[in-house]
Amino acid sequence: MKLAYFHSHHYGAEEWKRRELFDWICNACDSPGLKIRDTKNVQEHFRDVLTLAGWSGPARISVDSNLSIFSLKADLAFQVQLGNISRCAYDLLKIQYMYQSGKINMAALAVPTNSASKELGSNSANSNRVWNELQIFNRVITVPILLLAVE
User: Fold this and answer.
1) Under DSSP, is residue 147 helix (H, G, I), strand (E, B) or coil?
2) Average model confidence (pLDDT) for the chain?
3) DSSP 57
4) How far apart are CA 127 and CA 147, in angstroms?
5) Which residues pair with residue 72 across a beta bridge?
6) Taking 90 as the threshold, does the pLDDT of residue 122 lie above it?
7) Confidence at 123, pLDDT banded by 50, 70, 90
8) d(Cα 112, Cα 119) in Å, to the nearest integer?
């Protein structure tokens, strides 16, 4: 697995750079020999990298709900979505809720590239579609997001 490219929504990349975490989060996407179709191992890879850097495990977005995101550290959120594209909209909604609640100030979302998503099955999350939808909902999803496209 490797980082193919990224997109910056509401200056997400600039915020990660400002905190000197941009290179680290991009490097977290690189794992030679790990195939994107091995979704469980990809998630374990991200979990291991984040945990070693002091990030949480799955974190509930509210005490009133069992909804969670992949990981938190201070005012940062990280989400990885390798499943159905419909789950990405839900992930963005959870991230936006945390932002509007003042719990986070920025996020990173890792999704497969369009070509890599084809290895995962029909209607899998892919960076092209997520990016296009972020542009459509630009005034709805206002949290700074670094969209990481992995393959």
Assistant:
1) strand
2) 96
3) S
4) 8
5) 77
6) no
7) confident
8) 10
Radius of gyration of the chain (CA): 14
The continuous run of DSSP H or E covering 1 comes out as none
For 90-108, letters b (16+ CB in 10 Å) and e give ebbebbbbbbeeeebebbb
- DSSP calls for 60-110: ES-TT---EESEEETTEEEEE--SBHHHHHHHHHHHHHHHHTTS-SEEEEE
Say how many C-beta atoms besides its own lie within 10 A of residue 52's C-beta: 9
- Is the pLDDT at 74 greater than 90, yes or no? yes
pLDDT band at 109 (very low <50, low <70, confident <90, very high): very high
For the domain 3-150, what is the CATH code?
3.40.91.20
Q: Give dist(CA 149, CA 88) in Å, integer.
A: 13
Strand partners of residue 68:
60
- Non-local CB neighbours of 9 within 8 Å, separated by 6+ positions: 131, 134, 138, 141, 143, 144, 145, 146, 147
Phi, psi for residue 129 in degrees, rounded to 5: -70, -45
Question: The whole model's pTM is what?
Answer: 0.95
Q: What is the pLDDT of residue 2?
A: 97
pLDDT, position 120 = 85
